[in-house]
Specification:
The protein is mainly beta. It has helices at about 30-65, 80-85; strands spanning about 90-100, 105-115, 120-130, 135-140, 145-155, 160-165, 175-180, 185-195, 200-210, 215-230, 230-245, 250-255, 260-270, 275-285, 285-300, 305-310, 315-325, 325-335, 340-355.
Length: about 375
Amino acid sequence: MASPVNQASPAAVQPVPQVVVTVAPPTAPAPQFERTLASYFSTLDPIVRPVSDVFSTLSDVRKSLALPNPGAVEKLQNEVKLVQTTNFMFEGARADLTKALNMNPVFQVTHAFTLSPEGKNAYNFGAVLGDETKFWQAGLDDLGNVTMRVNQRWTPSQISKVQAQLAPAGGQSFVQLEHDYQGRDFSANIKALNPSPINFTGIYVGNYLQSLTSRFAVGAEAVYQRPSPEIEEAALGYVAKLVGEKNDWIATAQWQPQGVAQLTYWQKLSEQVDVAGDLQVISVPQRRDAQASFAARYAFRMATLRAQIDSLGKLTSVYEARFSPAFAFTFAGEIDHLQGTSKFGLGVSIESASENIDPMAPPAAPPSVPL
């Protein structure tokens, strides 16, 4: 009987390895434009990188100093102007009737009547609408002049402004475009008055104010005037601002290349009293002159008294008393001792709201409109 045939076990069978070959498609060469652009930037890198590193280092240093924002150049003398009587003085009789239709957003209309000593009457109708991001104001007087103002806040630090006036035949019309930027430790502003995109005529102004320390800031203001394509003029002025350690006093200086310098000083004496001084010096070949003024403001609970005297012998006083949240009385007077003249003004202001006002309740807080 034949012996059985020996069969190999399944574990003894070795699998045959398979080799997979992947062929990558050929890489297309980079276009000539990309190679040229890359070569161009690689050439500029030794020049641009050191400059970029310097600006980055300066930015880090400024952040570590935590310098405050110095405020706008156009508001450099804001505290002094609030004490002086210049912007509050008027002559004749005046009545302002204001109707507040809404508080937030602010929406109100105003009727202003003025009677000058010459017997000329004037009337102006105005409307205001504003909230946290926008401020719209428009006015129309009895002569046909239409004025408008639009402020738009894009971000907490950037505000665009437009002001315009449309006057009838023989009047003066203008338009002003402006953009304001408030940085962490600086402020910048550019504006154009009656700009023309055709021949680039108009007045162009740019200013910059930088904080150097927590109390001191310096800046510059450039003015370019081109009333016609054949005439152009440029000037550069400088400003400085020094603030007290407790923010209880502010000193400013401003110089224009035409030979005009201005020094101001404001100090808060108490919660109700603050004073301000102003000195203007004009030094040009045809004229050398100086004028100084001193003003004080007393803020009571329901009244405000402003008084001012200057080196020309003028004594001015403006008194405003608010008998209720809806009614105010204003008296203004000026006596010129050197010229022997005087001016007087009497004004009333009446405000009404859509809802009844409680005289004992505090007034509602309006929104912070972009001014």
